[in-house]
Amino acid sequence: MNITEQLREGVVVLRLRGPFTGEPESSEFQKKKYELLESTKNKIVLDLAGTTMINSAGLGTLISALVSFRDSGGDLRLARLNKTIDDVIQKVQLDKVFKIYDTVEKAVSSFGHAK
Questions:
Q1: CATH number reported for the structural domain that contains residue 75 in this entry
Q2: Which of 16, 24, 30, 68 is the most exposed place for a label (fewest CB within 10 A)?
Q3: Is residue 94 part of a domain?
């Protein structure tokens, strides 16, 4: 998995590319999560348009990140879910847990100006 980072209006946008199915993807994502939390960046948008598949291990990693960012006073929001990822999220009803947006711009603006 490839993770790229961009800062927009005080919100970190992480673009995930490739499968999110456990190791080594979970470790890469966890490392990025800890880097962000250590630098007090806790308002995060995940752009999942390039995520090719996700399984229970990947979902568990996302839930763990959601809890970590919320515990630190921030949040984790999902954007641009492709059909494959959206189907999985809907099937396990995580759409009731995560805030999901059609575009990265809408997800970023949902935080207000979080600088």
A1: 3.30.750.24
A2: 24
A3: yes
